[in-house]
Write a structure and sequence with these properties.
It is built from seven helices and 13 strands. The chain is of the alpha/beta class and 227 residues long. It has one domain: Glucose Oxidase, domain 1 (3-Layer(bba) Sandwich), CATH 3.50.30.40. Strand 2, helix 3 and strand 3 form a beta-alpha-beta unit.
Length: 227
Amino acid sequence: MTPISIDEALALSERLKRLYTPAISDILDDMGYTNQVMENSLRPIYPDVKIAGPAFTLTISTYASFKRIEHDVEKMARFFQAMYRGCIVVVATHGTMHAASWGELMSNAARHRGAVGCVSDGAVRDVPRIWEIKPPFQVFARAFTPADSKGRVYFDEYEVPTYCGGVKVHPGDFVFGDFDGVVVIPKEIVQEVVKRAEDKVERESGFREAIRRGVEFLSAYQKFRVL
C-alpha cells in the first residue's frame, strides 16, 4: 500500500469530521473489524469538538515507587520533534491512573508541532488551561488528576504499535473522536471506510427525512436499508 501523504491525511480527516463515530463503527463491523472502538470510559473535555487524524503513538511506564527525579527532557524533545501536522497523539498508559499522562504544557507543545488533539487511556491534568488553547485542542481521557507525572511515570517509546483504550493502534492508523467516543480505523482501509461511511450517512439522512414526512417505518427501511 502506498503511504498516505500529509495532505491526503488532512483531506481524509476533514471528510471524517463531517461524519460521526457510530457510522464509522458500523462500517468497520461490516468489514469484519469488530474491536475498533475504545473503551467508553474515555471522555472528551469538549462535548462538541471532533478530532480526526493519523495516530502518533506514545507509551508510558510507571516507576515502582515515587522518585525524586527530573523528566528526561531530551527524550521528550525527540518525540515532540517527531510529531507532525494533523496527527493525534495517542497515549497508552497501561492502566496508569495515579498520575497525569498529559497536560496543558504538552498540549501546547503538541499543537506547536501541528497535532490536533490527544487521546489518553489514563488521567490528564490542567484541563482549564487546555480550554484556553485556541483553536480548541481536544483531549479524550479516562480521568482528571492534579498529580504530576514527574517521579511517578516516564515516557517510554513513541511511534510503535500499542494498545490504548483496549484497541490496538499502529502509527498512522486513523483516530476519530466525537461525543460518542473514539474509533480507530486501520490505515490500510481508511479510504474505503470513509467512502462507505459517507454513503451510509447519506442514506441515514434520507431515512430520517422520510420518517419525518410520515413515511411508514418499513417502507423507509426498504428504500434506504439503514437502521
